[in-house]
Amino acid sequence: MWAFIHKLGSPKWFYAISARLTPWFWAAAAVLLVVGSVWGLAFAPSDYQQGNSFRIIYVHVPAAILAQSCFAALAVAGGIYLIWKIKLADMAAAVIAPFGAAMTFVALFSGAVWGVPTWGTWWVWDARLTSMLIQLFLYFGVIALRGAFASRDSGAKAASVLALVGVVNIPIIKYSVEWWNTLHQPATFTLTERPAMPADMWLPLLVMVLGFYCFFIALTLTRTRSEILRRESAKRWVRDLADGHAGGRR
Amino acid sequence: MTFRLEGRGLGCERDDRWLFANLDLTVGPGEMLRVEGPNGSGKTTLLKILSGQLTEHDGELRWGGQPMRRSRTTFLANLLYLGHAPGVKAALSPLENLAWYQALNGERGSESARMTALDEIGLCGFEDVPVGQLSAGQQRRVALARMLLSPRPLWVLDEPFTAIDRQGVAALETRLQAHVVRGGSVILTTHHELAPMAALRRVALGVS
Amino acid sequence: MTFRLEGRGLGCERDDRWLFANLDLTVGPGEMLRVEGPNGSGKTTLLKILSGQLTEHDGELRWGGQPMRRSRTTFLANLLYLGHAPGVKAALSPLENLAWYQALNGERGSESARMTALDEIGLCGFEDVPVGQLSAGQQRRVALARMLLSPRPLWVLDEPFTAIDRQGVAALETRLQAHVVRGGSVILTTHHELAPMAALRRVALGVS
Amino acid sequence: MQVVEPRTGLAVAVRATIKRDLTLMLRRRGEVINPLVFFALVITLFPLGISPDTALLAEIAPGLLWVAALLATQLSLDVLFRSDFDDGSLEQLLLAPQPLPALVLSKVLVHWLLTGLPLAVMAPLLGIMLALPVESYAVLALSLALGSASLSLIGAIGAALTVGLARGGVLLSLLVLPLYIPILIFGAGAVQAAVLGASAAPHLALLGALLAMALMLAPWAIAAALRISING
Amino acid sequence: MQVVEPRTGLAVAVRATIKRDLTLMLRRRGEVINPLVFFALVITLFPLGISPDTALLAEIAPGLLWVAALLATQLSLDVLFRSDFDDGSLEQLLLAPQPLPALVLSKVLVHWLLTGLPLAVMAPLLGIMLALPVESYAVLALSLALGSASLSLIGAIGAALTVGLARGGVLLSLLVLPLYIPILIFGAGAVQAAVLGASAAPHLALLGALLAMALMLAPWAIAAALRISING
Amino acid sequence: MAFESLTALLAMGGHAPYVWSAWGVAAALLIVSVAHARAERRQLIRELQRRNRRERNLSERETDER
Ligand code: HEM
Ligand SMILES: Nc1ncnc2c1ncn2[C@@H]1O[C@H](COP(=O)(O)OP(=O)(O)OP(=O)(O)O)[C@@H](O)[C@H]1O
Ligand SMILES: Nc1ncnc2c1ncn2[C@@H]1O[C@H](COP(=O)(O)OP(=O)(O)OP(=O)(O)O)[C@@H](O)[C@H]1O
Ligand SMILES: [Mg+2]
Ligand SMILES: [Mg+2]
């Protein structure tokens, strides 16, 4: 077990193993996203209440789910980095944070846009919306904190601590926000209750969610590999690797 | 029980440049180590590593034969570190500053002991002036007064002579000598010529 | 036109204690004045008065024969003051810091001139590193590089040798000497032994 | 020379740290009342910016008071470790042979004593200006006293993380304000419940639970954050 | 050795100062957006503290937005001279053979460019969240752009006065907030007028007049305040 | 197929601005992420190669001198 963890933590080993995995994830992401998009945009039936604006769900929900998963991943990576000092975990965290923020933004934007035809307003202070907004701020905090340190290691540790503190807080925030909203005015808008969606509505959604996840994994692997090159650029094996790369001259 | 600080294979990299690598050193009772080198050679960095403040380095530190991780509390109880910054509060008086430092060790200390220490270090008459209103050299002297108060065997001093006048430097040198003779140990950096002392060893950094 | 900084009957009181009183001094071309005294004797205070930063004092300052009030702009254009704090921005590189200081004089300067100055002061290879990541001595060297860039006749230097290594001190002494020979003038404080120089005069404070 | 055995003496160290910080804050008497005056000023700005209509003001008063108190606490947090960092005494605090969480907890305690507690005491006074019903004053003060302790603890984590940074002030807000939201909600909720005549007990209980959790976890997080900042 | 005649070269010095401050701020990219994020966060806090009811929020939106923008500006002001003071470059700025008011004006200009202007641009977005009517967005942005320039200028006086003090941050608020009140009243008034469909021109004209006055007087006041602080 | 024609698909039953802007922003961010990742990787490798070449040059010159 220990040996395995440490092997996993070795950038060289990871670089080699991920080279084989990454293309598969990119391919799966491409296929799933294309199929899901065409299915969701053109073939899924329109909603009897919302009409075609309902098709926003196929980007909104995957982005919202992924945004939350990314924060969890960030905290896990931060914990691994702080406890076992595995640099690879931090490289992954550095890469995940901006993507998580981007997905949070997509969820917020698509939700806000969706709100206009369905609720008649861009924004309401609904519990889910509010906690998503706060999550965006938490992402900004983690990214800004990492960038504010001159030393990379200190920035990494600080960001890890903040991610851990944030992940302890997210459930509390969610819970309190929900409580707050029902407290002030019981019947505000709720996100459309799930009207037992027909299969040809939720199947494309499932495909899209899987596609987003594959995309996330592929992107994280690719960018972590770049991060390895950046941080280990003084190592022998990285030098040799660059020479062996297409376009390199001996 | 006797003490000994050992560093084995110490190395530190900053921005892809090795300040030092594979450095072995050891300091025990009655020994004095002077870390030498030009500006930017890594003296301060080495002292921070030796005092356990910087943990991102190669190699291993041992205190009293045990790895530093395990003996950290004992080590800290035996260490007096004075860095580039004097570590005294500008709004407090020298007396109040010293009282806090004593209490940090869990000692209550006595007002008269603190007065004596301040007198000895040359701050007679300034005991109750807020430190912020003292001159550069006087502020450093407040920090130096800690050496007289709490008996700690290991002193780690980063340029202790900064801003101190000539008489003060001589007095300080005598004090260091006395500490070593009593069986304490000292690690220091300075660009000053030190008066010749027994038991002085040197480590030179960055003589590339 | 020639220049001369004169102080007549200078005095400064701090907390009911006269640091110095009735001090007359004058510095002209080719002269070097060393202000001496133990810690807390008022050297920094005197230098701040002489550079026009502290205005609450007794006595009168004159520049080029005119009272300081009237000749302040000319005076400032001829003054280079380096205080206890180095006055360089930690987030900027040495090159950027120097560029700003040149521009403050209304000069555009050239990148290559700045590079040369930094090389000469011993910061070759550190021109683009944020100053905050340099060592104590290197940070002071960035400030000292200003002496090489803008030709100002009057240098007022408060402990310029702080944190500078032995070679650096020697180089700096030669530089001061050269400035004086060229007809500039220098006022400085230091606790270092200065190498014997021609044209060096001394003012002793607080030898009570 | 004798090797020094690590003494315990934690009580002495904690008491001295509390005394030192109290002295430091009280020595500049002006500074202790700064957060209070900021609080009062912000509360004065709102009627000016919004409208002098008392019915409207009374409706938004619990929220305004809580947000203003929160901002006042958070502003005063920036300097919690900053000045210790600048003059090198933070370095020395970390090198003390005492458990760091206990020492930082005493610093936070002093911060709360001189900021959160006075804010809580003063809030009813400003409640009058915003036409808040008198029944809610006790709950307002109690909720602020409880809540501001959590605010100090959580904020100190952010202050510790940003202590070495040049422009920490605003970054600190970014890190800390999102984490404050539950406390704000329960605190303002308690006052609102009191205004409406409902029981504020559940809200106050929740505030207490949050405080207990913060007391358990925050000191360790603060200590870890300080070690990171010093290392940078 | 030649005596140096005082050169003019003011344009060079001003341009270099602007460039230096811009570089300093932009080097840490995170820090430029910090006031913006603070603005957004404070605006988020209010609905959480007050109530999610859109009608109520829309009514108080102009005041909330203006007060939050004011606080964001004022917080970011604290560091305007602080870091220059700490590392001794303020001392050197005062010893430069150039008119000090011009140099400080360039520092304030950079502050406004990187704080006030972005705040004004972002305000409509937050207006959406507070359910502010769309018609008033242009006036909101314009009033904030004009007003925040005055805020920066006036705030800089306070920043200059407190730069030597250890805990300047909160004291600064006290000095400066009362001076902000006229700007707040006219600014929020302009937006309110636009919401109600009335003409915002008189309010905007008054804001412009205040700005002109601040531009004429503040640089001298800032310069004098800096000289006083350095002398301490 | 839920739509009669391509134009109907584009019109989204009157909801075109909403649906297409939401999808557009999502697609744009995904595409930008991919492009950025690719550019980053390519630049890193080019930098490494340049560094290798430079160092090889240096060491060759050193051996030449010797
Ligand atoms: C800015 C506005 C919005 C935000 C921030 C937002 C956020 C979220 C979040 C966080 C989820 C949870 C995903 C999960 O974990 O399962 C979600 C799901 C969902 N949202 Fe939104 N939303 C917004 C607006 C809307 C609007 C306007 C609608 C439709 C009227 C909507 C419909 C849905 C649906 C149908 C789901 C899936 C429900 C489920 O799986 O539980 N959302 N949204
Ligand atoms: N701001 C101040 N307020 C009150 N007294 C001050 C202030 N600054 C300095 N002093 C007093 O003036 C005296 C002289 O200070 P100064 O800094 O000029 O000494 P110095 O000769 O430069 O000493 P050093 O060699 O230590 O640098 C000190 O004893 C100090 O107590
Ligand atoms: N926080 C940091 N980040 C990156 N590099 C640093 C940092 N601190 C120091 N360095 C680098 O490490 C080198 C050694 O610094 P250090 O302060 O140890 O030197 P020193 O020997 O104490 O010099 P001095 O005699 O000037 O005090 C410097 O060249 C500096 O560039
Ligand atoms: Mg050093
Ligand atoms: Mg001095």
Automatic annotation (TrEMBL), chain A:
<feature type="transmembrane region" description="Helical">
    <location>
        <begin position="21"/>
        <end position="44"/>
    </location>
</feature>
<comment type="similarity">
    <text>Belongs to the CcmC/CycZ/HelC family.</text>
</comment>
<dbReference type="Pfam" id="PF01578">
    <property type="entry name" value="Cytochrom_C_asm"/>
</dbReference>
<dbReference type="InterPro" id="IPR002541">
    <property type="entry name" value="Cyt_c_assembly"/>
</dbReference>
<dbReference type="InterPro" id="IPR003557">
    <property type="entry name" value="Cyt_c_biogenesis_CcmC"/>
</dbReference>
<keyword id="KW-1003">Cell membrane</keyword>
<dbReference type="GO" id="GO:0020037">
    <property type="term" value="F:heme binding"/>
</dbReference>
<feature type="transmembrane region" description="Helical">
    <location>
        <begin position="201"/>
        <end position="221"/>
    </location>
</feature>
<feature type="domain" description="Cytochrome c assembly protein">
    <location>
        <begin position="14"/>
        <end position="184"/>
    </location>
</feature>
<protein>
    <recommendedName>
        <fullName>Heme exporter protein C</fullName>
    </recommendedName>
</protein>
<comment type="function">
    <text>Required for the export of heme to the periplasm for the biogenesis of c-type cytochromes.</text>
</comment>
<keyword id="KW-0812">Transmembrane</keyword>
Automatic annotation (TrEMBL), chains B, C:
<dbReference type="GO" id="GO:0016887">
    <property type="term" value="F:ATP hydrolysis activity"/>
</dbReference>
<keyword id="KW-0472">Membrane</keyword>
<keyword id="KW-0547">Nucleotide-binding</keyword>
<dbReference type="InterPro" id="IPR005895">
    <property type="entry name" value="ABC_transptr_haem_export_CcmA"/>
</dbReference>
<protein>
    <submittedName>
        <fullName>Heme exporter protein A</fullName>
    </submittedName>
</protein>
<dbReference type="InterPro" id="IPR003593">
    <property type="entry name" value="AAA+_ATPase"/>
</dbReference>
<dbReference type="InterPro" id="IPR017871">
    <property type="entry name" value="ABC_transporter-like_CS"/>
</dbReference>
<keyword id="KW-0813">Transport</keyword>
<dbReference type="Pfam" id="PF00005">
    <property type="entry name" value="ABC_tran"/>
</dbReference>
<dbReference type="InterPro" id="IPR003439">
    <property type="entry name" value="ABC_transporter-like_ATP-bd"/>
</dbReference>
<dbReference type="GO" id="GO:0017004">
    <property type="term" value="P:cytochrome complex assembly"/>
</dbReference>
<dbReference type="InterPro" id="IPR027417">
    <property type="entry name" value="P-loop_NTPase"/>
</dbReference>
Automatic annotation (TrEMBL), chains D, E:
<comment type="similarity">
    <text>Belongs to the CcmB/CycW/HelB family.</text>
</comment>
<dbReference type="GO" id="GO:0005886">
    <property type="term" value="C:plasma membrane"/>
</dbReference>
<keyword id="KW-0813">Transport</keyword>
<keyword id="KW-0812">Transmembrane</keyword>
<dbReference type="InterPro" id="IPR003544">
    <property type="entry name" value="Cyt_c_biogenesis_CcmB"/>
</dbReference>
<dbReference type="InterPro" id="IPR026031">
    <property type="entry name" value="Cyt_c_CcmB_bac"/>
</dbReference>
<keyword id="KW-0997">Cell inner membrane</keyword>
<dbReference type="GO" id="GO:0015232">
    <property type="term" value="F:heme transmembrane transporter activity"/>
</dbReference>
<dbReference type="Pfam" id="PF03379">
    <property type="entry name" value="CcmB"/>
</dbReference>
<feature type="transmembrane region" description="Helical">
    <location>
        <begin position="137"/>
        <end position="163"/>
    </location>
</feature>
<feature type="transmembrane region" description="Helical">
    <location>
        <begin position="204"/>
        <end position="226"/>
    </location>
</feature>
<keyword id="KW-0201">Cytochrome c-type biogenesis</keyword>
From TrEMBL, chain F:
<comment type="similarity">
    <text>Belongs to the CcmD/CycX/HelD family.</text>
</comment>
<keyword id="KW-0997">Cell inner membrane</keyword>
<keyword id="KW-0175">Coiled coil</keyword>
<protein>
    <recommendedName>
        <fullName>Heme exporter protein D</fullName>
    </recommendedName>
</protein>
<dbReference type="GO" id="GO:0015886">
    <property type="term" value="P:heme transport"/>
</dbReference>
<keyword id="KW-0472">Membrane</keyword>
<dbReference type="Pfam" id="PF04995">
    <property type="entry name" value="CcmD"/>
</dbReference>
<keyword id="KW-0813">Transport</keyword>
<feature type="coiled-coil region">
    <location>
        <begin position="34"/>
        <end position="65"/>
    </location>
</feature>
<dbReference type="InterPro" id="IPR052075">
    <property type="entry name" value="Heme_exporter_D"/>
</dbReference>
<dbReference type="InterPro" id="IPR007078">
    <property type="entry name" value="Haem_export_protD_CcmD"/>
</dbReference>
<dbReference type="GO" id="GO:0017004">
    <property type="term" value="P:cytochrome complex assembly"/>
</dbReference>
